[in-house]
């Protein structure tokens, strides 16, 4: 009887480990950071200089943090320090991000944040790194924790 109980406990233990690995492998999760200099969305000959941080969790939620400044000719620079959340869904090779409300300075500085939906492509490099193709010119490297 002892051996049967022990085998039953081992079977439950291994079933739990298998279930835990299935739960943890079900989604995509990573963090990324990028420094960008680009033209401003709201004026001619304006420019912006900012850092952008991306966090995507495996539950379909994520957030962007944007910290930087933008300027237009003959105007003082405007500083932007903002965090906004999004939900995302995968469709084929692309991820569609549905952005929550953002402060106007973010969309003034970065034109891709004007719209409420953002389409990005993510390619896996290895087990812990991904390339995130934003509508910018340069991609981000996203690392899984």
From TrEMBL:
Name used for this protein in its record: Uncharacterized protein
Origin: domain of life: Bacteria
């Amino acid at each position: 009887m002892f051996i049967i109980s022990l085998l039953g406990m081992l079977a439950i233990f291994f079933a739990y480990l298998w279930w835990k690995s299935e739960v943890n492998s079900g989604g995509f999760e990573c963090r990324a950071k990028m420094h960008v200099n680009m033209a401003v969305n709201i004026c001619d000959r304006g420019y912006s200089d900012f850092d952008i941080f991306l966090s995507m969790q495996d539950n379909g939620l994520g957030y962007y943090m944007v910290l930087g400044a933008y300027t237009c000719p003959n105007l003082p620079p405007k500083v932007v320090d903002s965090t906004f959340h999004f939900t995302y869904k995968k469709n084929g090779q692309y991820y569609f991000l549905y952005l929550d409300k953002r402060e106007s300075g973010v969309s003034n500085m970065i034109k891709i944040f004007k719209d409420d939906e953002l389409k990005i492509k993510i390619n896996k490099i290895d087990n812990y790194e991904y390339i995130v193709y934003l509508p910018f010119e340069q991609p981000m490297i996203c690392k899984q924790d």
